[in-house]
Amino acid sequence: MRGLTVCLTLILGLYALPATAAALEAVSFASLDGTRLNAWVLKPDLAPKGTVVALHGCGGLVATRGKRQGQLNARHQAMADLLEAQGYAVVFPDSLRPRGVQELCTQKIGQRTITQTERRRDVLATLNWVAAQPWARPNKIALLGWSHGGSAVLAATESAHPEVAAQSVKLALALAFYPGCGAATKANYQPNAKLILMLGEKDDWTPPGPCIALGKAVGAEVNVFADSYHDFDNPEGGVKLRKDVPNGLNPGLGVHAGANPTARATAYARLLVALRAAFD
Q1: Rounded to two decimals, what is the model's pTM?
Q2: 231, exposed or middle or buried, with CB in 10 Å at 0-12, 13-18, 19+?
């Protein structure tokens, strides 16, 4: 508990500071399906203590409007700054734009051309790329994802899947923020790494119930944050009803998404404690 309290204090302090202009390095490598992926990498000045591969949600990796247009969106930038300050490298692979897609959120799930098959292959290729870098520690790599990227965490850690079983890189930790857990449940999912789930109690986009049940079945750590919707860890804005999203608990009626600063700080504090245990 003391470690969590210290981390919570640190995170609250970081959110009070202006955003940093951290230098991101653009890299490129092939997915397992042959797609040429782009990724952004942020490394600390000293040798990284470990590497976090961070997976965007259905909205993509970068902001598409506003002052951050063309840059990492606010949530991704906040996470990059937080992890870099702790001495970790962060790698953000882009699964959408290399395939000519800007976002998936407004597409019905059954009509999407980018599925968890593509996401899984992108993740595994990214892990291989990280493990081959001279600055990386192959035994200290964690996976982190949000929403569609959280589901990709599950897809890429499904131990019985042939592509995952053939993967030589072993994860130290896997963390998924508000993923969809239906597919994993149907596949009798069993993770190949320690799994932590971060869920919003009021999430009507990817409801927490299936993930709570999945977490219990596989022995994962499940954190459910009170009074929190989808995207509760966004560092900007408030909760809004998105009527442009056709999926969710009530298809056609829209979904709620937006920040809960208290839940965000608590979740990120737990994330840092878990990473320290996995890496340090």
Answers
A1: 0.92
A2: buried
Q: Count CA atoms closer than 13 A to 94's CA, side-chain side.
A: 25
Spatial separation of the C-alpha atoms in residues 236 and 159, rounded to whole Å: 36
| Inter-residue contact 98 to 57 (CB < 8 Å) | no
CB atoms within 10 A of CB 238: 9
| Position 13, amino acid | G
Q: Classify burial at 132, counting beta carbons within 10 Å of its beta carbon; exposed 0-12, middle 13-18, buried 19 or more.
A: exposed
User: What is the residue type of 237?
Assistant: G
Tell me what pLDDT residue 202 has: 98
Length of the chain: 280
Whole-angstrom distance, CA of residue 112 vs CA of residue 105: 10
Closest CA relative to residue 111, chosen from 166, 177, 58: 58
Other Cβ atoms closer than 10 A to 198? 29
Alpha-carbon gap, residue 136 to 232, rounded angstroms: 31
Helix locations, the chain, DSSP H: 2-15, 74-85, 116-131, 148-156, 162-165, 182-186, 208-218, 261-279
Mark the ranges of the chain whose per-residue pLDDT is less than 70.
1-22
- Asked if 96 and 85 touch (Cβ cutoff 8 Å), the reply is no
CA atoms within 13 A on the CB side of 85: 17
Q: How far apart are alpha carbons 245 and 268 in whole angstroms?
A: 27
